Amino acid sequence: MDCPLCSPPAGTHSEIVIREDGRCRVIRVADPAYPGFCRVIWSTHVAEMTDLTADDRRHLMDVVLATEQALRVLMQPDKVNLASFGNMVPHLHWHVIPRFRDDRHFPEPTWGAPQREGVAHAAPADAALAQAIDAALTRR
Question: Is 80 exposed, middle or buried (0-12, 13-18, 19+ CB in 10 A)?
Fold first, then answer.
């Protein structure tokens, strides 16, 4: 199976692993227009949430929500978009995208037509983001 989320192509640096726990990993997506954009990727190749056990679903959603909380604390966005598509890559993953009123697409989705040039907001340091995710998970 050739899945870019199971094994990213060699030599690519499009993702930085922020946090990994054996069941899932949080990566920072290299997107200059959306510097806080993260993906939470399930470690085994499954396509849908209902492919997971109830315990695994809870764990994954806890990590997704902790990532959202960490980004809210560190970046103070106007909104955070959460989405799980898997149309292009049928491997369970969630997009966690901090949004700002002055970003390129707001209020439209990030894959839509740009609304303006947009302002790039500073991304949190990887270590600070990992620490904030862990802190949010501890509070759950």
Answer: middle
Whether the CB-CB separation of 3 and 89 falls below 8 Å is answered with: yes
Domain 15-139 has CATH 3.30.420.40: no
Instruction: Pull the structure tokens for residue 19.
Output: 């946090």
Q: Of 136, 130, 109, give the one whose Cα is nearest residue 28.
A: 130
Strands in the chain per DSSP E: 15-20, 24-29, 38-42, 79-83, 93-99
Bridge-partner residues for 94, per DSSP? 40
Find the distance separating the first CA and the last CA of the chain, reported in whole Å. 36
Neighbours of 63 (CB within 10 A): 25
Per-residue pLDDT of the chain (140 residues; tens, 9 = 90+): 577 777 665 555 567 899 999 999 999 998 889 989 999 999 999 999 999 999 999 999 999 999 999 999 999 999 999 999 877 788 899 999 999 999 999 999 998 899 999 998 999 999 999 999 999 999 86
Cα 59 to chain centroid distance, Å, stands at 15
